[in-house]
């Protein structure tokens, strides 16, 4: 189930989010077993330029178009597998 929340807080600046959206997400662990969860994307009106544009919208139509544009960019975001593997290796080595 996909949901939209207005209660999230930005993890970078701690400001209340303009919007956040959660989407179902499944990944496979090292044993190949699917792990089901959710991915959350957050739109911050303080440190995200897209969030500032949404807050500055002059009419509902502009607001809706900006939100839909933002939503379109959130669906396919995945972590960089190289950076993720490096971070996992650091964590396993006790460096984090
Ligand atoms: Zn922020």
**In sequence order, what are the helices and strands, one letter per element?**
EEEHHH
- How would you state the average pLDDT, rounded? 87
The global form is elongated
Q: Determine Rg (CA atoms, Å).
A: 16 Å
Q: Biggest sheet, in brief?
A: 3 strands, antiparallel
- Ligands in the structure? zinc ion
- Level of helix content? 25-40%
Number of helices: 3
Strand tally: 3
**Uncertain segments:** none
Instruction: Please state the structural category.
Output: alpha+beta
Please list the strands of the largest sheet in the order they lie side by side: 1-2-3
Fraction in beta strands? 25-35%
Our measurement of the CA-to-CA distance between the termini, rounded to an integer number of angstroms, reads 33 Å
List the domain count as a whole number.
1
Provide structural commentary.
- The mean pLDDT is 87.
- The protein has one domain.
- α1 (49-55) runs antiparallel to α2.
- It has three helices and three strands; from the N terminus they run βββααα.
- The chain is of the alpha+beta class.
- Zinc ion is lined by residues 10, 12-13, 15, 44, 46-47.
- Zinc ion (ZN) binds next to loops.
Entry summary:
The chain has 3 helices and 3 strands, in the order βββααα. It is an alpha+beta fold. Strand 2 (17-28) and strand 3 form a beta hairpin.
């Amino acid at each position: 189930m996909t949901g939209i929340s207005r209660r999230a807080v930005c993890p970078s600046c701690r400001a209340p989010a303009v919007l956040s959206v959660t989407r179902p997400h499944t990944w496979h662990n090292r044993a190949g077993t699917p792990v089901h969860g959710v991915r959350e994307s957050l739109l911050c009106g303080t440190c995200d330029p897209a969030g500032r544009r949404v807050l500055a919208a002059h009419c509902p139509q502009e607001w809706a178009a900006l939100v839909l544009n933002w939503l379109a960019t959130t669906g396919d975001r995945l972590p960089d597998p190289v950076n993720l593997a490096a971070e996992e290796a650091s964590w396993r080595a006790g460096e984090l």
